[in-house]
Structures are given as structure tokens and as C-alpha cells.
Design a protein that fits this description.
This protein is mainly alpha-helical and 125 residues long. The protein contains 5 helices and no strands. It is 82% helix and 0% strand. α2 packs antiparallel against α5 and α4 runs antiparallel to α5. It is elongated and about 45 Å long.
Length: 125
């Protein structure tokens, strides 16, 4: 009896996957992978800010990494919540980049962290 329920559940899940389509599942997985990459890039940014006096180039590299991941994410989504979170992160990254360009070796990255967290929430399958 239990094995029939499990089999029915598996068949139902497979049917729903077929209805939803692999495209939607692929997009969700791409979003989750990109969100993870953004989180890693934000961690690098945090480290770069803490060691900016020793190696200021790391700040620029970390910001560039986030930009690259955001471009990748932007290309794979049409979700309104995710688009807003990406826009917020873009603005926060631009603000940090401007601060760095203006000579701030320890810019406030809290808005970057907050926006990246929101992307993680939106992308969590």
C-alpha cells in the first residue's frame, strides 16, 4: 500500500514537472546558482573592504564580479520581484563603486549585503 502511494506521488510529481516545463525549472536552478555566486562575490567584497588598505584593487575586482553575476542573472529572468532585487543590488554596487572612486577605502557595503540577501530569498527554490 505504501509503495503504491510513493509511486503515485512520483508519477504526480513527474506529471507536474511536465506541465510546468523544464524551462521554468532550469530558470529556477539558474537563479539559485547565480544567487549563490552573488553571495560569494559579496563575501569577497566584504573581505576586500576589510583589507582595502593593503590591496585596493580587490575592491574593484569584487565589484566587477558582482556586476558579472548580476548580468548573468538579469539575462535569465522575467520575475518582477527578482528584477527589483537585481536593480537594488545594481544601485548599491554603483554607490560602493562611486565611493571607492572618490577615495573611500572602507565604503558602507550594508546596502549591497541587504540586496544580495533579497536576491537569495527570491531565488530560493
Amino acid at each position: 500500500m505504501r509503495s503504491r502511494r510513493i509511486a503515485a506521488t512520483v508519477v504526480t510529481a513527474a506529471a507536474l514537472t511536465g506541465l510546468v516545463g523544464c524551462g521554468a525549472l532550469d530558470k529556477a536552478m539558474d537563479c539559485a546558482r547565480t544567487a549563490e555566486a552573488i553571495a560569494t562575490s559579496v563575501d569577497k567584497l566584504s573581505t576586500a573592504v576589510s583589507t582595502a588598505a593593503e590591496d585596493p584593487a580587490q575592491l574593484t575586482e569584487a565589484l566587477n564580479d558582482i556586476d558579472k553575476e548580476l548580468k548573468s542573472l538579469d539575462d535569465t529572468t522575467d520575475n518582477a520581484d527578482l528584477n527589483k532585487a537585481v536593480d537594488d543590488l545594481n544601485k548599491a554596487v554603483d554607490n560602493v563603486r562611486t565611493a571607492v572612486d572618490n577615495g573611500d577605502a572602507t565604503p558602507d557595503i550594508a546596502p549591497v549585503t541587504d540586496a544580495a540577501t533579497e536576491i537569495g530569498k527570491v531565488c530560493t527554490p
